[in-house]
Amino acid sequence: MSLVTEATARPAENFRVTRSRRNVAWTGAGALVVVVVLAMFPYIVYSGTTAILVQAFIVLTLASMWNLLAGYAGLVSVGQQAFVGLGAYFVLILALHGTSPFAALPVAAIGCGVAALPLWWLVSRLRTGYFAIATWVLAATIMLIIEKFSSIGGGTGMPLPGLAGLSPALLTAYTYWAGLAVTVVALLVIYLLLRGRLGLVLTAIRDDEVAARSSGARVGLARMLVFVVAGAGCGAAGAVLSVQWTAVMAFATIIGGLGTIEGPIIGTVVYMVLQQTLASYNAWYLIILGLVAIFVALFARRGLWGLVDEHLNVRLFPVGYWLRTGQRGAAPSGLRSEKRGTSARATREGGAG
């Protein structure tokens, strides 16, 4: 039954839309405990473990930013590696002028966000596959431009100055904490954005852009903001550590669950486990990654976290909105039976992940 039919059938009841409030306190407390425990890792685990976790942090940040673009704003970008590279080069340029690489990290993130503004102007009118191709072209163009500057390595890079005085153990710890900080800030920013009105606007845009515009949603502004935030996040990730395959951001997001905050987290765990377990098998490693992606695409359309949410109705990050019914003063109850027209998840949580 659609929402319109339901509302028409029961005109005497009061309907109101409320912000999702599930598990807010528990989510915050649990996240704080996890962050504190992770921050202690350089003191209690070997450097090899922290190096793996740094890579996991970067993959999670990239996946979360790509998910913000594709999963919420409907912008499928295949050119986010441009911001990863720009973030790394911003840190390099600042370090060459005497700034500590770790102090340069937030500046690099802001610089990537600023750089995203003119790039957005070039691709803002494109949609679907045209947008994806355009972002790839932009990334290739930026790479060709950077190759013209021999002072920063001409596209091949150069050693990062400002780290010679640090011991290997201290450098590993600082890099680990920087990666953890970037991931925590990225997830917090995404959560706050989606928790507010922007989350509802993005969901409306993703589901039906024409309907969103007709409802008064500022589609262009919302998409521009997401593009800038994703650019800054990917730039921060690149400033910490450049990864060899930026396509892993899409893999981790789709495997975990597109359009949810939890999806990239689960997808990153799956990717890192597969990588550490199968990397020594050469070509078989890539074959198994492909088979996992095909299996999820065929049998778990909403990703692994979608399966959990579907059967247990669990959300670690409660964002979105609830449509509630009931008389004034009575305990509100969410509508849960709608399947056609508007999905059950869109009904209960505004579809906002």
Blueprint of the fold:
Blueprint: H1 3-9, E1 15-19, H2 24-39, H3 41-44, H4 47-72, H5 81-96, H6 101-123, H7 128-146, H8 168-195, H9 197-207, H10 209-214, H11 219-240, H12 248-256, H13 262-278, H14 283-299, H15 303-312, E2 321-325, E3 333-334, H16 344-349
Antiparallel strand pairs: 1-2, 2-3
Helix pairs in contact: 4-8, 4-11, 4-12, 4-13, 5-6, 5-7, 5-11, 6-11, 8-11, 12-13, 12-15, 13-14, 13-15
Textual characterization of the structure:
By secondary structure, this protein is mainly α. It is 67% helix and 3% strand. A 3-stranded antiparallel beta sheet has the order 1-2-3. The longest helix is centred in the middle third of the chain and has 28 residues, at 168-195. The two termini are 22 Å apart.
Could you give a short description of this structure?
With 353 residues, the chain is mainly alpha-helical. The chain is built from 16 helices and three strands.
